[in-house]
Amino acid sequence: SLSAWAEIIRIRYPGTDIAEELSVDVERLGSVVERFSLIGSKPKLLPEDMPALAQKTVTYMHKRIASTVDLKIANETTGCNSVPLNPVLLGWVIENLVKNSIDAMKGAGSVTVRLSENDQEAIIDVEDTGKGIPRKDFKTIFKPGYSTRERGWGLGLSLSKRIVEEYHGGRIFVLHSEPGKGSCMRVILRKDK
């Protein structure tokens, strides 16, 4: 029904972005449902364009965050267009890392999603200018229930870890962090699986 309303808005109010953004959000709701259906079962990994997936995720989020957040992507890859991955789940990991960065900055600062590679690996770094993570919590943040937010459930990073490590055979970890200056989370995926 939301898709139908989006089409009515598009017809009645041509030239506005409302219908387009509503359609994107309806599509995103479908992705959320698919994410939950994939958790608990071994998802199929297919060769995908990792930079295109990261760009799509950043573009989606850019329109839905405060103007006080400078969200950008830096693609330093040349051959990551056939990385074995599940786009629904890996897109969710990137989105979760970006949201955590925005929360750590209290809604103002800079987040960079940096894509790089070496011969065997595709690398996604999400770097922010937030409050940082104490070294003693580098491993703890991935445990279910750990949250620094008042209303947080502490599931985002634990699910991200499961998606990256168990489903994709990759790694996710804190690359570096300095309290008061920011953090960088790293995801490493194998190019061939």
Task: State the shape.
Answer: globular
How much helix, percentage-wise, in residues? 25-40%
Q: Give the assembly state of these chains.
A: single chain
How many individual β-strands?
A: 7
Structural class determined from secondary elements? alpha+beta
Profile the largest sheet: 5 strands, mixed
Description:
By secondary structure, the protein is α+β, with helices and mostly antiparallel strands. The protein is built from five helices and seven strands. The protein has helices spanning 2-12, 18-38, 50-62, 87-104, 156-167; strands at residues 46-48, 69-75, 83-85, 109-117, 121-128, 171-178, 182-190. It has a five-stranded mixed β-sheet with strand order 2-4-5-7-6. A two-stranded antiparallel ribbon has the order 1-3. Helix 3 (50-62) packs across helix 4 and helix 4 packs antiparallel against helix 5 (156-167). The longest helix is centred in the first third of the chain and has 21 residues, at 18-38.
